[in-house]
């Protein structure tokens, strides 16, 4: 089957904007990607942003979307359908028109990872990740496949023989999928290959997301919601000529990208607001939100728009770090210095290590024994070159890793 993005180009040119009225709540920063054409997918974490395109491969930004470069080393297909960043394991997966590719250096270089798929050139339509453990699901032209963390091959997960256009996890126990020809919605336990077809008939679903295990969303020309784990689906008030992408935010928001731009619901789909002030994105074909709540929108015209943050309580302050955890460094991206917040449940010796994408130790900080409670470490970045790095906290039974970006 011809890829859906190619079929939609004419529709985009003829479509009118969504009827939802704009509410002046979001200011966008626009960055054109030279020669990129249609943006089909975006993934973002810790200052790293990757944008997949319909014909030009993948672009990478190490400064939160400010500047971009093409990173197609190792790719044999330039038609990118989906991107996933597994920050827990330092891996990026790209789904293309001719197979899947894996990067262990944050998208700079790529290697094919097609073992276990029905063919090495399999069409990967969609990707989803289970945040709790890093399990990745791929929707393909031959069903659903799983890629476990650190695995070198995929495992068939069911719906083989069906064209799967969208997949999502609920981060509890279920996976959801949308197929075409025939058009149907399915759900299954993550540990099972036995899929159940929804009792509700919906055609043309291209995107799915889950804001909570109790509320799953699917989008065709209408956004639908399920509150019974995919058994039935009910339409929300949001309609459009065509909806390209659907994601959830850090605080349960739902974001829609369509020919009219970007819209959001803050109450589970009951009401919607168009997000825009000044030059807002139109024809939003890809969306992503990073770990700080920054929203990225890719467009049909080859630009990436960056918004302010949408996450309540994510402000980089140490008071927002849960006890026994590692917080996001700030500022991020950073130049000369960064601050790393963390919190201990008990007094403990502390070790913080910064490593590059190849796993080489750049610097190690050992502040000694610290008491229980919130803490910060101020790190001098003077001798460290620009790039994407990991920082690892080992203390109080914690072994946690997060990502940061350094720019000069």
What topology does this entry show?
Elements: H1 4-14, E1 22-23, E2 29-32, E3 39-45, E4 48-53, E5 58-61, E6 69-70, E7 80-86, E8 91-96, E9 99-103, E10 111-112, E11 124-129, E12 136-140, E13 143-147, E14 155-158, E15 163-169, E16 174-180, E17 184-189, E18 196-197, E19 207-212, E20 215-219, E21 222-226, E22 234-239, E23 243-248, E24 254-258, E25 261-265, E26 273-275, E27 284-289, E28 294-299, E29 303-309, E30 325-326, E31 337-344, E32 348-355, E33 361-370, E34 373-380, E35 387-395, E36 398-406
Parallel strand pairs: 1-26
Antiparallel strand pairs: 2-29, 3-4, 4-5, 5-6, 7-8, 8-9, 9-10, 11-12, 12-13, 13-14, 15-16, 16-17, 17-18, 19-20, 20-21, 21-22, 23-24, 24-25, 25-26, 27-28, 28-29, 30-31, 31-34, 32-33, 32-35, 35-36
């Amino acid at each position: 089957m011809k890829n859906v993005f190619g079929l939609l180009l004419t529709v985009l040119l003829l479509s009118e904007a969504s009827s939802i009225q704009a509410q002046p709540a979001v200011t966008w920063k626009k960055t054109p990607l030279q020669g990129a054409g249609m943006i089909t997918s975006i993934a973002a974490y810790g200052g790293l942003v990757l944008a997949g395109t319909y014909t030009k491969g993948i672009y990478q930004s190490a400064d939160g979307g400010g500047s971009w470069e093409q990173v197609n080393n190792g790719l044999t297909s330039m038609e990118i359908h989906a991107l996933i960043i597994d920050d827990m394991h330092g891996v990026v997966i790209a789904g293309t028109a001719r197979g899947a590719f894996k990067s262990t250096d944050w998208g700079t270089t790529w290697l094919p990872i097609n073992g276990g798929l029905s063919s090495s050139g399999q069409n990967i339509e969609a990707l989803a990740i289970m945040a709790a453990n890093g399990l990745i699901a791929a929707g393909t032209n031959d069903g659903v496949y799983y890629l476990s963390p650190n695995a070198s091959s995929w495992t068939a997960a069911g719906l083989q023989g069906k064209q799967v256009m969208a997949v999502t996890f609920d981060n509890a126990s279920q996976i959801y999928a949308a197929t075409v020809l025939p058009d149907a919605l399915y759900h299954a336990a993550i540990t099972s290959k036995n899929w159940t077809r929804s009792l509700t008939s919906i055609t043309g679903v291209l995107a799915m997301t889950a804001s909570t295990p109790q509320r799953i969303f699917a989008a065709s020309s209408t956004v639908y919601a399920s509150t019974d784990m995919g058994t039935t689906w009910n339409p929300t008030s949001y309609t459009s000529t065509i909806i390209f992408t659907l994601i959830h935010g850090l605080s349960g928001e739902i974001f829609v990208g369509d020919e009219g731009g970007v819209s959001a619901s803050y109450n589970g789909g009951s009401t919607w607001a168009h997000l825009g002030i000044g030059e807002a994105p139109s024809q939003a074909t890809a969306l992503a939100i990073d770990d700080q709540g920054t929203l990225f929108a890719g467009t049909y015209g080859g630009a990436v728009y960056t918004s302010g943050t949408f996450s309540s309580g994510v402000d980089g302050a140490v008071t927002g770090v849960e006890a026994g955890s590692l917080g996001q460094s700030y500022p991020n991206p950073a130049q000369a210095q960064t601050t790393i917040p963390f919190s201990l449940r008990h007094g403990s010796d502390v070790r913080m290590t910064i490593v590059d994408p190849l796993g080489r130790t750049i610097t190690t900080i050992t502040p000694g024994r610290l008491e229980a409670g919130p803490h910060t470490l101020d790190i001098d970045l003077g001798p460290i070159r620009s790039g994407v790095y990991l920082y690892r906290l080992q203390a109080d039974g914690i072994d946690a890793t997060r990502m940061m970006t350094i720019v000069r």
